[in-house]
Amino acid sequence: MSKNFDVVVIGGGPGGYIAAIRAAQLGFSVACIDEWKNEKGGPAPGGTCTNVGCIPSKALLQSSENYEMAGHAFADHGIEVKGLSLNLQQMLGRKNTVVKQNNDGILFLFKKNKVSFFHGRGSFAKAAEGGYEIAVAGAANESLVAKHVIIATGSNARALPGAPFDEERILSNTGALAIGEVPKRLGVIGAGVIGLEMGSVWRRLGAEVTVLEGLPTFLGAVDEQIAKEAYKLFTKQGLAISLGVKIASVTKSDKGVTVEYTDDKGNAQKGEFDRLIVSIGRVPNTIGLGTDAVGLKLDERGAIVVDDECRTNLPNVWAIGDVVRGPMLAHKAEEEGVAVAERIAGQHGHVNFNTIPWVIYTSPEIAWVGKTEQQLKAEGVAYKAGTFPFLANGRARAFGDTTGMVKFLADAKTDEILGVHIIGHMASELISEAVVAMEFRASSEDIARICHAHPSLSEATKEAALAVEKRSLNF
């Protein structure tokens, strides 16, 4: 016998579980289906982000940075560490504990908000009277009927042709987070967010890391000035980064992985690695969703086709997050989830793609929102720029990390902030001020006139805003 709900959410990642909770807050009867399993086979909601993405990677980034600090930077603070050693299994265990805490937190939130949770794989069975029949394949097969369906099935790692992931030698983000011993030689294909973050983790722990990037430019989506600074800092740290490479072949053996490629000058090269992380993007996850059963429209990438409000071609069927157009970011999925729940309730959900922040959690961190300088030039927009280095910031000196800068881009006529770009310590936290400012269409003068606490890293934001009019006070 089918169970009836106002809203059924397929997928319990950041977009899905947030959509379910918001819909329940608005008074709907809600079910959320998710198939992730923990080591014991129990439910592990949170999707890629919680289980093999954002959360575990940040746990390892923090642990590996602590290890590197203890080995290199603590001495400057008068802290002498003798007999430093790495317990990798403890580090991985801590990472797993952090993941489980987040899994359990989501289950608690479902219970608190009266969201019915079904552990299994959700798919469309057929259109039904009053909505859609959703099959749940799990330990106990279930049948649900939903008036509204929100699809939040996320994405999967893209594999290199002819080199499928085995998560032993050739690794996706999943395997990269669970290497049992520090590899002597680690190869990374793709110098994007995942490649740089995972490369940084294992370099800090002792691996010799080589990053192979197919594009001729480093971090092409990042403001060019910030990207150049990042390239300089990462290579100084020890990441060997090659740009403009073309992969010819990837060969796996019991001992490791061989990558044959041509460099940016057309010279044939060969890399021998113990492990290879492939981070060349992600593909929408619609496999097994039963799209054909109801006629749900997909695009040429396999993504679900939606309009600006996340409506699919089917009435009362919505899709959000990585499985639709737009940036594959957890917080973008969350915002779409809230917006869709509110639209179902007849409200006006809000998602502004122009003010979605981006972060790369390396050291230093890179964060930005809005337009880059190269985008403004290409669009012919007249702008003013202001930068301020953390080298001149008192709190950064006290931290012992003065790398990087804050950069403001503002309209030349109206002074409206068009983009803010940060490379430096805690950039992920500092960028929020810029997001708020841009949502309210603030000017650089507005930020320049706001009192910031002293001493704080946020003073660099104020100083960069002042620098737009060439009146920085501390540089």
TrEMBL record:
Keywords: Cytoplasm, FAD, Flavoprotein, NAD, Nucleotide-binding, Oxidoreductase, Redox-active center
EC number(s) reported in the record: 1.8.1.4
Pfam families given in the database record: Pyr_redox_2, Pyr_redox_dim
Keyword field contains Protein transport: no
Residue ranges occupied by any FAD/NAD(P)-binding domain in the UniProt entry: 5-337
Disulfide cysteine pairs (residue numbers): 49-54
GO CC entries: cytoplasm
Residues the record lists as binding NAD(+): 190-197, 213, 281
Predominant location: cytoplasm
InterPro entries: Class-I_Pyr_Nuc-Dis_Oxidored, FAD/NAD-bd_sf, FAD/NAD-binding_dom, FAD/NAD-linked_Rdtase_dimer_sf, Lipoamide_DH, Pyr_nuc-diS_OxRdtase, Pyr_nucl-diS_OxRdtase_dimer
Superkingdom: Bacteria
Subcellular location: Cytoplasm
Catalytically driven reaction(s): N(6)-[(R)-dihydrolipoyl]-L-lysyl-[protein] + NAD(+) = N(6)-[(R)-lipoyl]-L-lysyl-[protein] + NADH + H(+)
This protein's record includes keyword Ribonucleoprotein: no
UniProt record similarity statement: Belongs to the class-I pyridine nucleotide-disulfide oxidoreductase family.
Protein name per its UniProtKB record: Dihydrolipoyl dehydrogenase
Lineage of producing organism: Bacteria, Pseudomonadati, Pseudomonadota, Betaproteobacteria, Burkholderiales
Gene coding for it: lpdA
